[in-house]
Amino acid sequence: MTVGDPNQNVPAAEGSVGAVLAGDGLAGGGPGGAPLLDVDRLTVRLPVGGVPRAVLRDVSLTVRVGEAVGLVGESGSGKSMTARAIDRLLPAGAQVEGQIRYRGRDISELSGGDLRAFRTKVAMIFQDPRAHVNPVRRIGDFMTEAMRANLRVPARYAHLRAIEMLAQVGIDDGARRLRQYPHELSGGMLQRVMIAAALLTDPVLLLADEPTTALDVTTQAEVMAILDDLRREYGLAMLFITHDLELAAAICDRTVVMYAGQVVEVRSSALLHQDPLHPYTAALAAARPDIERSSTRLRAIPGRPLSAFEAPADECAFAPRCPHASDACRQSLPALTELDGGLSRCVRAAELRGQLTVTHA
Amino acid sequence: MLGVLRSTGIAGMVSAVVIAVATVFAAFGPTIAPYNPDLPSLGLAFVGPAGGHLLGFDFEGRDVLSRLIAGAQSSMLGPLAVVVGAMALGTVIAVVAAWRQRLTDTVVSSGLDILFAFPGILLAVLAAAVFGAGLTAAAVALAIAYMPYVARVLRGAALKERGQPYVAALEVQGSSASRICLRHIVPNMLPLIVAQATIMFGWAMVDLAAISFLGLGVQPPAPNWGVMISENEPGILQGYPLPALAAGLCIVAVVIAFNVLGERLFLQAQVQQAQAVRR
User: B169 vs A122, B152, B172, CA distance in Å?
Assistant: First the structure.
């Protein structure tokens, strides 16, 4: 099995990757230079019928204190798996290479009380709020449980804080809501409850795994606005996982684009649209329908997305679908290299600069 | 609670009444019994119903109805102890196996397979041989023998619950494993646990009666339904089957009642789970 060997491409790129991942010369950095979260050459394989299959290949990314980082890609590109790896939620039997460091500490070494303390600092907001709450417990039990059990907050005070936090996410009749059961709340309401609950344990990092995907379009914007506001207000760092390139660009300082279990581009969000560094990013942006442009067909990317385990070890995973692919793309797996303050895993990135810009005709 | 009973149908409600009556006898038997259940008068041995004695007299001339009522205590308490013991052990083992998974689960499951090889009665006879005859030894032995059945069913339920996304959500909140198991997983399995317990009560009652019949459980002259069948057995041959039969009927009625109610509750638990999944 050679797929995803971390030594294949890293040594050549290590210097530049290190510099850019630490945030040198990138706009929108939060306070504090040291990264809060540092995913370093993470490779994850899951056993499928006894055979390990790669789901993440050599993923590196950093999140600094107070910084929002978007994680974008098609279904199966490894976005959620990255978040699950960070919160130590990988399925049993997963093989992990590389490191995930939180404030410089390797999280794979955490256990018992340390692991629980780490998890209270890293809150996760899930895609489907309804599945992620015990259906037979009241909202109040759910919201105050972590405070009472893990932070030893007295029940009475926890109750008041929950009501206060519900008000902050736009739910005014908090006392009544706390007595209700999850099935009595709408999806959007429940997701706001989840956001409030996540903030109650005073986390420093939010992992938001497509928090608005399961909601209908009108509530999506509302929930997103609440999440973004509160994140800024509390100065939290966030890893925001989404399909939506424009949403990520709008609320995140930097955006990481994943394809087939690899990071293909890291770019300051402000520049991602105007000046993408990887053909895949450009194609993703072009495929999105535009409200100001009437077109009969969406510009789909030809072919189908590759799963991480199908991707070849010795050529660019996107080459078969890439309009700019050349022979060079099929000769070796491109390394993640620095270009104008960003990172790109494309051998032709420099020569394609400018040509990749999304132009909506 | 009343709503749950009503939804089990007429059979379920009749069963509940039978169980309630037996429970009242078990709790207050000696005070309710119309005559002294332990007072023999040999001249009345195997005399049929007469006067205020509705079910006649047993082989030593004691009032059968009084002995039935007084015997409810040991006849019900024994199975209760077995069920509580088996349920507690089985639930703990099932939840631990489901939580730890992998090696722990494999070891536990294999251990259960080995325990399945020993029939409950055999284990109880063995316990009586080692620790002497009596209700305690028999109940402990049966609890251990029944535990694998509980553990197997609950392990499946616990595994399913373990895989629920809300459990992962609790984990990333920093909740401890013991808290998640005790406050979330076990309460959510409760309908299944109750249903299992009621069905198991029936088995335990029959097995304990059999053990008492063999003379290894409750010791005469203490009143007990199993003992009553055993000691009045000669009456069946002598044409006075009523004392043994009455005790047997009590066992049959209570066992059927527990089985019917348990089955109905089990169905309900399944329906509830199916609805929870669909939601």
Answer: 12, 26, 5
Is A88 among the domain residues? yes
Amino acid sitting at position A267: R
For residue A63, give the CATH number of its domain: 3.40.50.300
Structural tokens at position A316: 């660019």
pLDDT tens digits, A23-67: 433 333 344 467 888 888 899 998 888 888 888 888 888 898 889
DSSP H helix total and E strand total for chain B: 12, 0
* Chain B residue whose CA is closest to A203: B173
The pairing of beta strand A68-72 with beta strand A254-259: parallel
Count how many domains chain A has: 1
Cβ burial of A251 (10 Å; 0-12, 13-18, 19+) is: buried
pLDDT digits (tens, 9 = 90+) for A205-246: 999 988 888 788 888 888 888 888 888 988 899 999 988 888
Q: Which CATH number is B65-278's, of 1.10.3720.10, 3.10.180.10, 3.40.50.280, 2.40.440.10? A: 1.10.3720.10
Instruction: Return the residue in A107, A133, A134, A207 with the most chain B beta carbons within 10 A, the one to mutate for interface testing.
Output: A134
Query: What pLDDT score does A33 carry?
Result: 60
Nearest to A202 by CA among A165, A229, A155: A165
What's the gap between Cα B84 and its chain centre?
A: 8
Looking at beta carbons, which residues of chain A come within 8 Å of B176?
116, 149-150
> What are the beta bridge partners of residue A40?
A99
Residue range of the domain that includes A79: 10-352
The minimal CB distance from B169 to the residues A116, A133, A183 is found for: A133
**Is A360 part of any domain?**
no
The minimal CB distance from A146 to the residues B164, B174, B184 is found for B174
Which chain B residues touch A120 with a CB distance below 8 Å? 173-174
Task: With beta carbons less than 8 A apart as the criterion, state whether B9 and B244 touch.
Answer: no
What does the domain layout of chain B look like in residue ranges? Answer: 65-278
ipTM of model: 0.71
Distance between A323 CA and the closest CA of chain B, angstroms: 40
Q: Which residues of B touch A (CB under 8 A)?
A: 101-102, 164-166, 168-176, 179, 183-184, 187-188, 276, 279
- Is residue A4 in some structural domain? no
Kindly provide the residue ranges of all beta strands, DSSP E only, lying in chain A, ordered along the sequence: 35-48, 51-64, 68-72, 95-102, 105-106, 122-125, 205-209, 237-242, 254-259, 262-268, 337-339, 342-344
Q: Which of B185, B208, B194 is nearest to B255 (CA)?
A: B208
State phi, psi for A272 to the nearest 5 degrees: -60, -40
The shortest CB-CB distance from A183 to any of B176, B188, B279 is to B279
pTM of the model: 0.74
Quote the CA–CA distance of B104 and B98 in Å, as a whole number. 9
The Cα B222–Cα B45 span in angstroms is 17
- pLDDT for A243-293, tens place per residue? 888 888 888 889 999 988 888 889 888 888 778 888 888 888 887 776 666
The answer to whether the CB atoms of A131 and B172 lie below 8 A apart is no
Angle between helices A139-150 and A155-168 (to 10 degrees): 120
Contact A136 B172 (CB under 8 A): no
